[in-house]
Each structure stands twice: as structure tokens, then as C-alpha cells.
From TrEMBL:
Belongs to the universal stress protein A family. PANTHER family: STRESS RESPONSE PROTEIN NHAX, UNIVERSAL STRESS PROTEIN HP_0031. InterPro entries: Universal_stress_UspA, UspA. SUPFAM superfamilies: Adenine nucleotide alpha hydrolases-like. This is Nucleotide-binding universal stress UspA family protein.
Length: 278
């Protein structure tokens, strides 16, 4: 399996340019189609906007709404050009679409119709007060989310892969969703954090990887004084990992998203591209 349809969540910032290049590099790798998505917003739907316009003359309200719409459109055109430039340089087909960011369902619907989405841990909606979290997208979309670091990074990624494994459903889902990266990697490491020294990668898992043409390096880290997320980050640094594949642990509770400790720490400060699945 390869990724054939890749979405990249775009904005007009320098980080958006990096995401466009990253997406174009991956699209070139798998001969995939690249789609850029820009989140728009309506001024009147933002929190408090209706109250802030109360009592203003109609001409002033019209001017505020037009200025807002103009700002959103200008930012979307910058993002569109970033994606076009990256796709052209990589020689891949691309398109661009604007989707309402006032409610997350519109973007989630797009993600459910793609093989892979690339986005930051948190994406603010341009000129709006809404934000879309990668964790929410991963929980709701049913597919893999590739979370990019906030700081500078550069493709290629996925040449030195670390798989965080604990035998759970989430870990198994991440493993399967990450096959295109795993099979194309130069190095594949499987990490189990086990202070007791038990519960390491078993023979069945090793044979599964080998039957896919992968010869993994199996690691059991039995550090007793470190949080599991700290162990993962330390192993990533020691192995010079450029892609972490991990299950996302947590659940939505009413309107609050409750994440497991490891997932929360990794998403708080993404050290390197992170492929998440729930």
C-alpha cells in the first residue's frame, strides 16, 4: 500500500511553506496527488463578533465584514501559491481548496476522504478564534495524521523510523497506517518502554515486519525513573529518528478532549514528524 491522496493543511506562515514542501516531497515519493486545504472563517460567526458590531452604523459594519473577507482571501492566495510552488518543484499534481474553519466537521470530512493528512499540532483559523487540533482530527478521521514540528525541519522524513509499540489496538492501528513509511525506510526501530523488562516485541511482530521486507531493530527500554514520553524522546535523539509512528491514546468527553500522558507530551512539543493513528 502507498498513500495516493495526501492533504496538507495550509496557512500563509513560513511554517505553511515547510508543510507544502514536506507534502510535495511525500507526494513525489508515492506518486500521490497533493491537495492543500485552507481554513476560512466568517467574521460574524466568531465568538463575540455579533456583540462587537452592535450599535455600529450599517456602513461601518459592511466595511468591517469586507475587510475581514479580504484578509482571509489574501492569506488563502498566499497559501495557494506556496502549495503550487512546492508541487511544481516536485513535479506532482496538486489542487487547492478552501474549507470553513468555523466548525471542524468540514475539514474532518475532507480528511476522511484522503489517505494521509499533514498538519501542525494546533492550527489556528486565520483571522478567527477557532483552532483545530491534530489529536481531534486523528480521533475523528479514522486515518493517519502526520503532525509536523513547529520549528524548522526539512524533508526527506521517514528514513529512520521509530515505532512506539505496546501491543495495544492504537499501536497496531498506527503500525498498519504507517506501512508506506516503514517499508520505504532505511532503518526501522521498534521501541517498547518496559521498566520491568517484560512485554517486549514478540516473535510474531518481528515476523510480520520481516514478511513485509523489513528487518527491525527491537528495543526494550527498562528505564525506571523516566516517563514513557521522555524515554521515547531520548531514544529518538540517540537514534537520530526523523519519523515517530505512535498510537494516539485518549477519547473525547463531551466537548473536552482527554489525552493520555504520552500522547499529550509528544503533541505539546513535537520533536520530529509524528505519525499518529487512533
Amino acid at each position: 500500500m502507498d498513500y495516493r491522496d495526501i492533504l496538507v493543511l495550509m496557512d500563509s506562515t513560513p511554517a505553511g511553506r515547510y508543510r507544502a514542501k514536506f507534502g510535495a516531497d511525500l507526494a513525489q515519493r508515492w506518486k500521490a496527488h497533493l491537495t492543500g486545504v485552507f481554513l476560512t472563517c466568517e467574521f460574524i460567526l466568531q465568538f463575540g463578533s455579533g456583540e462587537s458590531l452592535f450599535g455600529l452604523p450599517a456602513s461601518d459594519i459592511d466595511g468591517i465584514l469586507k475587510d475581514h473577507a479580504k484578509g482571509v482571501e489574501e492569506a488563502s492566495q498566499i497559501a495557494r501559491q506556496m502549495l503550487k510552488d512546492a508541487a511544481s518543484a516536485a513535479g506532482v499534481e496538486s489542487d487547492f481548496m478552501k474549507v470553513s474553519g468555523d466548525y471542524p466537521d468540514a475539514f474532518i470530512a475532507c480528511v476522511r476522504r484522503a489517505d494521509l493528512v499533514i498538519m501542525p499540532s494546533i492550527m489556528p483559523v486565520h483571522m478567527g478564534q477557532k483552532k483545530i487540533a491534530a489529536a481531534h482530527v486523528a480521533m475523528a478521521s479514522g486515518g493517519p495524521v502526520l503532525v509536523t514540528p513547529a520549528d524548522d525541519y526539512a524533508p526527506p522524513a521517514g528514513k529512520r523510523v521509530l515505532i512506539a509499540w505496546n501491543g495495544s489496538r492504537e499501536a497496531a492501528r498506527a503500525l498498519r497506517d504507517g506501512w508506506p513509511f516503514i517499508q520505504g525506510a532505511d532503518e526501522v526501530h521498534v521501541l517498547v518502554v518496559s521498566p520491568s523488562g517484560e512485554g517486549g516485541p514478540d516473535g510474531m511482530l518481528q515476523r510480520l515486519l520481516e514478511r513485509h521486507g523489513v528487518r527491525p531493530n527491537l528495543i526494550i527500554d527498562n528505564s525506571k525513573d523516566e516517563h514513557a514520553a521522555d524515554v521515547i524522546e531520548r531514544q529518538m535523539a540517540e537514534l537520530d529518528i526523523d519519523l515517530l509512528i505512535a498510537g494516539l491514546y485518549g477519547h473525547p468527553r463531551l466537548q473536552e478532549m482527554v489525552l493520555g500522558g504520552v500522547s499529550r507530551q509528544l503533541l505539546h512539543d513535537v520533536p520530529t514528524p509524528l505519525l499518529l493513528s487512533h
